[in-house]
Amino acid sequence: EAGVAQSPRYKIIEKRQSVAFWCNPISGHATLYWYQQILGQGPKLLIQFQNNGVVDDSQLPKDRFSAERLKGVDSTLKIQPAKLEDSAVYLCASSLEPSHIQYFGAGTRLSVL
Amino acid sequence: GENVEQHPSTLSVQEGDSAVIKCTYSDSASNYFPWYKQELGKRPQLIIDIRSNVGEKKDQRIAVTLNKTAKHFSLHITETQPEDSAVYFCAALSSEVEYGNKLVFGAGTILRVKS
After folding, report:
1. Which pLDDT does position A95 carry in this prediction?
2. % of chain A beyond a pLDDT of 70
3. pLDDT in tens, B23-71
4. Which residues are within 8 A (CB) of B106 and not within 5 positions of it... i.e. 6 or more apart?
5. Is the Cβ pair A42, B106 closer than 8 Å?
6. Of A92, B15, B37, B113, which has the fewest beta carbons less than 10 angstroms from its beta carbon?
7. Alpha-carbon span B61 to B91, nearest angstrom
8. Which of B36, B43, B99 is closest, CB to CB, to A105?
9. What per-residue confidence (pLDDT) applies to A20?
10. Cβ separation A44–B105 shorter than 8 A
């Protein structure tokens, strides 16, 4: 089966610019997650969708980050404006249901200069 | 909320030796504990997981043990090989009434297997 697809793989922007990441989960997976992984740390959940509804966005910096999953399939995560501390790998994951195994995409490595 | 602590942060072993990584969690309601392996520049991949109704699970050279009373779980790798070198993350699935199930990760352990 095809895995979780993410694009782009790498992105370099200057601070205060905006950036968007895209994720296509495994077919049939109702739950989609966006994680932020800062170098040397474990992934931190930013937002969790169940179909096209938000289940948890308690750790999403809502003043600059936004995410949507309009048709309950693919999703986009946007940062506007970016800060230096947003430099990280942004991982998308999906699972059949919240308590099931999560499968990760390859991630987008963001560098903010 | 759930907090997961992982030790050690780095671990070097000789090829063929065993490696043990330990994690503790805070939420007694957590009931699912996966372990992920992440090679440099690649995606985290699930290598083994355990649910709270089981004390131990084994898959070839990899085993996980869970002590619910003490709220800790461990990853055991026997007969280590150079290809086992990677970062290993433990995680706990926390059930928060307000937000539903959330996977909380440890900080990771860098495992180096020297040949």
Report:
1. 93
2. 99
3. 999 988 888 999 999 998 899 999 999 988 779 999 999 999 999 999 9
4. A42, B4, B5, B6, B23, B89, B90, B91
5. yes
6. B15
7. 20
8. B43
9. 98
10. yes
Q: How far apart are CA B38 and CA B15, in angstroms?
A: 19
Q: Does A73 touch chain B (CB under 8 A)?
A: no
Side chain identity at A33, as an amino acid letter?
Y
Whether residues B89 and A42 touch (CB distance < 8 A) is answered with: yes
Q: Which pairs from A46-51 meet CB under 8 Å and 24+ separation?
A: A46/A77, A47/A77, A48/A98, A48/B99, A48/B100, A48/B102, A49/A75, A50/A98, A50/B100
CA distance, residue A100 to nearest chain B CA (Å) = 9
| Mutation for testing the A interface, residue in B33, B99, B104, B110 having most A CBs under 10 Å | B99
> Cα B52 to the chain's mean position, in Å?
14
B100 to chain A: closest CA residue: A55
